[in-house]
Write a sequence for this structure.
């Protein structure tokens, strides 16, 4: 029971990010008809961030709950970290493309 409580306390730190990514996906889906390309990039970007966060937090939960798995996974922590970071970087790239990719240049004096 103490392990479960410890895991829940650890997961509280990830909750704001998870809620933010879910909100980003919901907003993108809601605005899909107005801007389908932008919404697709934003939704996929938020989904990749969410996947990276869940992937890394899942690793931490497994490490906390199963000591045998923790010993086996310690050697692969760099792999888990790189996959999580790569998902987040791809997500950030898509979100930045959604924000700035469809901007039209405004001529000075208009």
């Amino acid at each position: 029971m103490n392990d479960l409580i410890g895991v829940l306390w650890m997961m509280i730190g990830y909750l704001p990010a998870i809620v933010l990514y879910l909100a980003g996906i919901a907003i993108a889906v809601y605005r899909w008809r107005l801007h389908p390309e932008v919404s697709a990039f934003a939704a996929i970007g938020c989904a990749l961030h969410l996947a990276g966060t869940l992937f890394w937090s899942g690793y931490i939960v497994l490490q906390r709950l199963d000591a045998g798995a923790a010993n086996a996974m310690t050697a692969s922590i760099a792999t888990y970290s790189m996959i999580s970071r790569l998902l987040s970087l791809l997500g950030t790239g898509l979100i930045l493309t959604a924000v700035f990719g469809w901007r039209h240049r405004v001529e000075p004096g208009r």
The chain has a mean pLDDT of 83.
